[in-house]
Amino acid sequence: MFLLIIALTLNIIILIVELTRGNDFLETLAVCVVLLVASIPIAMQVVCTTTMAVGAHALAKKKAIVSRLSSIEELAGMNILCSDKTGTLTKNELTIKQPRLCAGYTNEDIHLFASLASKREEGAGQEAIDKCIVTSSIEKFGFDFSIYEEEDFIPFDPRIKRVEATVRNTKTGETFKCAKGAPQIVLAMTSDESLYGEVSAWVEELASGGYRTLGVAKSTKPDEWDMIGLIPLYDPPRDDTAETIQKAIHMQVKVKMITGD
Predict the structure, then answer these.
(1) Pick from 231, 199, 239, 238: which is nearest to 129 by CA?
(2) CB neighbours of 37 closer than 8 A, spacing ≥ 6?
(3) In whole angstroms, what is the distance from residue 228 CA to residue 99 CA?
(4) Tell me: the pLDDT tens digits for 174-188?
(5) What's the rounded Cα separation, in Å, for the pair 3 and 6?
(6) Cα–Cα distance between 45 and 37 in angstroms, integer?
(7) Which of 32, 143, 185, 226 is 20 to 30 A from residue 71's alpha carbon, by CA?
(8) What one-character DSSP code corresponds to residue 103?
(9) Cβ-Cβ contacts under 8 Å for 94 (sequence gap 6 or more)
(10) Separation CA 110–CA 228 (nearest Å)
(11) Which positions are annotated as active-site residues?
(12) Contacts (Cβ under 8 Å, ≥6 apart) of 217
């Protein structure tokens, strides 16, 4: 109690002196509040909680929901912002652009084999990429997938970075494998080393344009894979992405994109 009386007395004196000197009232009051809080540690928690609650209210008006008051303090000290890409920086609206084809293959070929190496049944288990490829294939070429019987399917695994399917054509009786995944992984499955330079150049070219690329290959003999080409996928950025990143940079916050691409 004695400490509180001394602190209040000193703050009143400071307030009067600063005002007589013609200083701004709000600035002087802010300084007095800081001194008062600093001199009475027990009030620190109450003042901080109240201040952050006011901040949460201000953020709510800007449609930002604060689940923990302490997160406001943590955000104020942030110097690196790590953001997800798909659906956060981008619209999550995948489209297929012009594929890059290896010799002897057509646009129809790469769409067919990429679709066969995808989950074609719509539902919770269908990935956005699979849905995009299958939908595009049906719209462009009208494929009838009912004639293909899936004998085995290896879903995408981050360790192997590809999807692989064993398929039988019920009309011709032919059984073959098809795969799609990270270009460097699919390329490494093939034995044609002459493709390495060309495919690597395609990947660099498409990456510089903001495209995600998938390599597609097929196999009719055990352990013999043929590279078909690359499928470029484009997910356009959200309308406010550039502005948001510029604001962060202006506030001296570094922005890092975290993505599985």
Answers:
(1) 231
(2) 43, 44, 47
(3) 10
(4) 999 999 999 999 999
(5) 5
(6) 9
(7) 32
(8) T
(9) 128, 129, 132, 233, 234, 235
(10) 6
(11) 84
(12) 113, 178, 179, 180, 186, 189, 190, 225, 226, 227, 228
